[in-house]
User: Fold this.
Amino acid sequence: MRRRNAEAGAGNLGCVVWLLVLGLAVLITMKAVPVKIASAELYDYMDELARTAGVNTTAEEVKKAILKRAEDLKLPLDKDHVLVERVGDRLRMRAEYTVPVEFPGYTYNWHFVHEMERPIFVV
Assistant:
């Protein structure tokens, strides 16, 4: 008995759909992962600054260091959205910024807020 391809139910549409889904996932990964890594590096840097800041470090110096690191990481952080204050023996920091992640036909504004409060250790 001979079979015809039209009756076998075989088609390539499923393969095309899966290739489109895979391509979309790769595109999102290529655009989003570098932004997330840069954001995590800034947070880690802020944590390191908080741990190493001594009694002789001013809040303005810490703020300038955060802004410099954000510039190096190409993050759109400006001085109006960085708050660094010393409250007693604690250092409180807050950085807020939005990174536009551009996709074909759509721009996603990814909003980040990094907040931390750490004790200042006398060395």
Q: What stands out?
A: The CA atoms of residues 42 and 70 lie 6 Å apart. Helices lie at 5-8, 13-52, 59-72.
